[in-house]
Amino acid sequence: MAESRFNNPYFWPPPPAVPGRAMAEPRTPSTDGTLDEFAAPTHVEEVREQMAAFAGHHASAGRRVVLITSGGTKVPLESRTVRFLDNFSSGRRGASSAEYFIESGYAVIFLHRHRSLYPYNSMFSSMNMLEALKFRSAEDASSDAAEVVVDQQVFPNITKVLKKYQEVKENRLLLPVEFNTLSDYLHLLKASAQALSTIGSMAMFYLAAAVSDFYIPASEMPEHKIQSSNGPLQLSLNMVPKILSPLVKDWAPQAFVISFKLETDPHILLEKARRALDTYRHQVVVANVLDSRRGYVVVVTPETQTELILTDEDEKNEVEIEDRIVSNLTSAHKKFISQQNC
Ligand code: PMT
User: Fold this and answer.
1) 117 CB-near residues (< 8 Å, 6+ apart)
2) Confidence band, pLDDT 50/70/90 cuts, at residue 137
3) How many Å lie between the centroid of ligand 1 and the Cα of residue 211?
4) Within 6 Å (CB) of ligand 1, which residues are found?
5) What number is the ipTM of this complex?
6) SS3 of 46, please?
7) H or E stretch at 1
8) From atom 35 of ligand 1, which residue's Cα is the shortest distance away?
């Protein structure tokens, strides 16, 4: 039977909220966009130029450009980092969405956490590559110039995927940019927004990365590894300014912006998604609950609320929810562009 909100506790709408359980007001500071508290990666200017050239090239050919953020940010606890806090995200949503955006005619800037999932690579994510390789012949195995081939029984789709990947590379449809820490992410997102502001409403921001709300300012961070011999560790973390605010208001005010809302408690999900739209005044929030995110999301706009659900049949046919999300958003983006041009 298809999963529906009636037989899955994580689906919206959840049971009525407990009386008296009012939600706290947001405490996250907004930013004027200066990011002075966060160290910029040394290559940020170079990356900004690459992104601007990429966006200009594709937009002048009439192609829309999407900036996808993907993976979790890392927050160091020490300057010479041994320990850090991490936000959960495998990067699968971002990587898979990148493939569907390219299929829909977009060029993609893929701002992703180093070593998180990468487009066209998902089949390798959980396997030992050596299990998929073999010598072309038994004689090869004993030769120094052995020929090694991919075992197509292990990767039945490898030819199709390789062709697609090479086509994407040849047409320069995918620009990968990596981040590791929260500071990298914030500066690179700002740089990408500034680069994409030159193409106005042709740009879409698809903010699927899981971004930390807490950090330790560089001025308060110990240089060396924290010593356990000093006893239990008490951490005091500052709030990270919500980067969505300057992105929508100042850096790329004409772009079509989608943020993601992740919660583990389904009771508060939609209220939080609506509040994000009210606060940041962007176009869409894709709301999801951690445990059901692969099969169910709600696309929330100021006027609409659309549930996207994978049925058992879809799952049998290996349909991915990102296919549905991207299809919904590319149509909305098209409408947005035509309204801007009226
Ligand atoms: O990668 P997968 O394993 O496939 O999982 C996908 C996902 C669950 C990570 C993804 O679907 C998702 O929900 N990503 C957003 C997670 C998140 O950070 O949610 P949030 O509620 O903490 O933040 C909401 C929005 O505010 C996000 O778009 C975020 O980019 C933005 N934000 C967050 C923190 C911050 N300091 N500034 C921000 O602008």
Assistant:
1) 70, 71, 90, 91, 92, 94, 95, 96, 125
2) confident
3) 6
4) 89-93, 207-211, 213, 240, 242-244, 259-262, 288, 293
5) 0.96
6) helix
7) none
8) 242
Is 254 a residue whose pLDDT tops 90? Answer: yes
Q: Where are the strands (E) in the chain, listed by range? A: 65-70, 74-76, 84-86, 107-113, 133-135, 148-150, 174-179, 203-207, 214-215, 238-239, 256-263, 284-289, 296-300, 305-309
pTM greater than the 0.95 cutoff: no
CB atoms within 10 A of CB 189: 25
Which residues 6+ apart lie within 8 Å of 183 measured at CB? 38, 39, 40, 41
**Are 69 and 189 a contacting pair, CB within 8 Å?**
yes
Find all residues with CB under 8 Å of 336, minimum gap 6, and list them. 201, 256, 283
| pLDDT higher than 50, residue 141 | yes
Ligand 1 centroid – CA 51 distance (Å): 22
At 62 the pLDDT is 97
CA-nearest residue, atom 5 of ligand 1: 89
Domains detected in the chain: 43-227+234-341 (3.40.50.10300)
pLDDT digits (tens, 9 = 90+) for 73-129: 999 999 999 999 999 999 999 999 999 999 999 999 999 999 999 999 988 888 899
